[in-house]
Amino acid sequence: MNDLALLLSPEGRALLDEVRDTDPARELAVATRLRREHPAELVSAALGQARLRQRAVVKFGAQDAARMFFTPNGVEQSTRASVAAYRARRLAEAGVTSVADLCCGIGGDAIALARAGIRVLAVDRDPATAAAARANAEALGLAGLIEVREADVTEVDTAGHDAVFVDPARRGGRGRIFDPEAYSPPLSWAVSAARRAPRAAALKIAPGIPHEAVPEDAEAEWISDGGDVKEAVLWFGTEPGAVRATLLPGPRTLLSRGLPDPEVRPPGRYLYEPDGAVIRAHLVAEVAEELDGGLLDATIAYVTADELHPTPYATAYEITDHLPFNVKKLKALLREREVGNLTVKKRGSAVEPEELRRKVKPQGPHAATVFLTRVAGAPAMLIGRPA
Hints:
seven-stranded mixed beta sheet; nine-stranded mixed beta sheet; alpha/beta; about 30% strand
């Protein structure tokens, strides 16, 4: 909080502009020079904030990140802007006009909600984090729609808002927390708060949550952005029992139809690697049906098919070779085909990609992708290229 107060002063804002593009390799020299004219504490705060802003570009974009204020945890744990904007659109389309954003962090979701025209009460119990959220609302011209309150979320009355969004802390002193009841606040409390919301509610949770932990009256959605799974969301007041995978940009959404597991087939001409959100949502069967395909192995999420069918929900590869797992044979084949650019993917194999790469020593002008997996229970290698 002291750092933020310094940076919000006229001298602090000017210094932030000056150190904005500082190369980390030159930071010591820049700090030495600036301390001749500015207090050492302010210089350290400005350079630290500049580093955080540079890290935040990937989540918030260069324009917003250059104006916002961050804490180290805030950069690490905040929602990517594209995901927050998608969620805000869903709430706006559901008729939501006001949201209690509980565990708001540095305000990433509150910003997206406000930009969707939704009034926000943003609550966080950490003083420095709440101060950063307040500064961000002001910096982005959204203070009229975002009220920031420093408080324990379990003691906040949300009755004046027609929706609730909860993003419980999922990290502790020893790293990530996998037990939903060890979240802060616990998932059971968040679910209770969501059920009291008059119109809708959304709970952001870890994508690895077991499906059996999803309440029966909730919709479960897994979201990926650019192919990377970012989060799962439990929705209340939408479609109870629905399961979906949403891919950004887009969005493109695949809904569960409750299909049985696909049959296991011998490798066809094409292998499809489903998007991570599809896999987490247990919707591989829906993709396999769309592709008229089956599984290489009953326990592995690789779909095989004889025809090429473009789909946003999986990446297609044309398979040229199917071999039992054998490093010497793979090395000889890659040498024969002069493969130097080798992509190694694994699913259901104990072999690490870098270990295999060291053993086969790829050399040459050509490229290939090798899949280390199982085919009907047997360790196998499939070699191919993007279709």
